[in-house]
Amino acid sequence: MGLAVNDVYQGDCVEKLKSVKPGSVDLVFADPPFNIGYKYDTYHDSRPAEEFVGWCREWMTGVERALKPDGTFWLAIGDEFAAELKVAAQELGFKCRSWVIWYYTFGVNCTRAFSRSHTHLLHFVKDPKQFTFNAEHPQVRVPSARELVYADDRANPKGRLPDNTWVLRPQDGPSDGFSPDHDTWYFSRVAGTFKEREGFHGCQMPEQLLARIIRVSSNPAELVLDPFAGSGTTLAVAKKLGRQWMGFELSTEYATRIKSRLKAIEPGDELDGPADPVASSPKTSKGRRLKRKKTDDKKEEYEKALIDVFQDSHEGASVDQLLCDAQLNASFVKACKSSGLGGDAAALNRTLMNIRKQGRLPRLKERAKRSVTFRQMDSYSFASEIAMEYVCREFDRTLDEVLCDPFRAQQFDLVAEKFSPGFTSFQYRWAAFAIRKRAKQASRAAVEFAELAQSPLPRSISAKDFDPADVDGAGVYLIAKGNQRRPIYIGETLDLSARLATVLNTEAWTSLAPFSIRVIPESKHPYGLQSALVQRLKPTLNSRELVPKQKAEVTVPRTKRAAAR
User: Is the separation of the CB atoms in 492 and 486 below 8 Å?
Assistant: First the structure.
């Protein structure tokens, strides 16, 4: 069965790793003791060198067992044993993709050596041909020196992957910018005076550093494990970024404090620390601010050319359909490039979307017939809703902005497929648009169910005892972890039996175990009842689109329908 996710377990990580379901973890980040004599709460970090390396082999063996075949392992380690542990990991079958140097300010002062201002971050994978590396993630990329310092118009607006150049100050980096294979990262260490310091653990990683690793090596809804939870930063960042998480901690006191820290965090919360330490550094005296060119005079010409390309390449599809059809969208972007239109795919799609919203797009002479009914979408629309919440939260973007960007749209598809596999990206994306369009109608229908939504809920049934065959017809279901009053998700469906069978037998759902399930049969407007319950209970995975800005009033006249109940 394995350990349940989204929890912290007190105990020895070597033993705890044996209880993790084999091949279930997407990303492991480990920041073990460096064996430099530091006294932790319940552990003295001083072992003979051979014993320390042997112990690391033990827990790394557990890491290898826990990771999926396409999983990733990041190891933070000091100078003293970086080389030895790299060799040990490779002997266990890991392949080293990068040897990153984390360069930080507020380094550890030394009296008879140069002050320590870096840590080694070893990036391993199990399969060098198949692993997650989100190089296009906008929050992973950094502004280049061309853009930040030298105001060079040739700078890539999307930035570059982080740099490996040794720098005295990050703003004095090389003029040719950041190369995709660079591997020196600059983040301030969490010094004792920093407000983000938790205070109960002597070695705390900055959240922004962990965010880069989690974003580049995992996707929303995937599982991140930290065998040395320490102050809980890895788990806190994983939770904020919409990942599942699991941690081990030897100290009982630390484990208790980590749980308290995580309890105060909600998915989507802001990360502590500056998001861009390079941009926030003082500017070099020879640098100058980038002066943006005025483009208003060319805007009309550019947009007219974009409309022409769309009309020639849309194949009868609307703009929404163009964004939902990855292949058709790629053809549109290619046609734009061939016509000399600048901008990446996201910029081209956003401009087209804005033209459509402003009513300046000519009516389509022929429309592609791709209508999908609510009943047809019933078997996967819930997965689209969950993907909306995960990915819009991950990038802090609207659904339109997510689907305009091919990378973000791909992340959306990945999450949706995890919760309801077997459908196309077009189906997942089109269902998301349908959910958004239905949100206002659902909010209005929610008023009818306001009184019912405030009534005591039906008795919950544990997942172990629940049989989908016992329910049928349309209705609403609430899924919670254990006995939590706040559900994970509130769903609506025309076929409760089929939907709950999917929930109980799909890995993305079962990884959230344990479950309790409540069922409310409702045949007329299940999405109205769903919306009313979402407004009341605020589940973690439901789309924010279903909660109107002006919450529906709960004190409404009793309808005949409500009175009959």
Answer: no
Domain boundaries, the chain: 7-263, 296-357, 374-564
What's CA 16's distance to the chain center, in Å? 26
Q: What was the pLDDT predicted at 165?
A: 38
Are the beta carbons of 272 and 207 closer than 8 angstroms? yes
| Residues 93-96: contacts with CB under 8 Å, at least 24 apart | 93/64, 93/126, 94/60, 94/64, 94/124, 94/125, 94/126, 95/124, 95/125, 95/126, 95/127, 95/128, 96/122, 96/123, 96/124
b/e code 234-270 from CB counts within 10 Å (16+ = b): bbbbbbbbbbbbbbbbbbeebbebbbebbeeeebbee
Structure tokens at 430: 């089109």
pLDDT digits (tens, 9 = 90+) for 465-492: 889 999 989 999 999 876 566 788 999 9
CATH superfamily of 7-263: Vaccinia Virus protein VP39 (3.40.50.150)
Mean pLDDT, range 522-530, rounded to an integer? 79
Query: 352, 310 in Cβ contact below 8 A?
Result: yes
The burial class, CB within 10 Å (0-12 / 13-18 / 19+), for 471 is middle
* CA angle at 177 for the pair 175 and 183, rounded to the nearest 5°: 125
**Structure confidence by residue, pLDDT tens digits, 532-558:** 888 888 888 888 765 554 443 333 333
Can you read off the two tokens belonging to residue 85? 């542990």
pLDDT tens digits, 453-470: 788 888 888 888 889 999
Please state which CATH class domain 374-564 belongs to. alpha beta
The pLDDT assigned to 101 comes to 85
Angle in degrees, 0-180, between the axes of helices 296-313 and 345-357, rounded to the nearest 10: 90
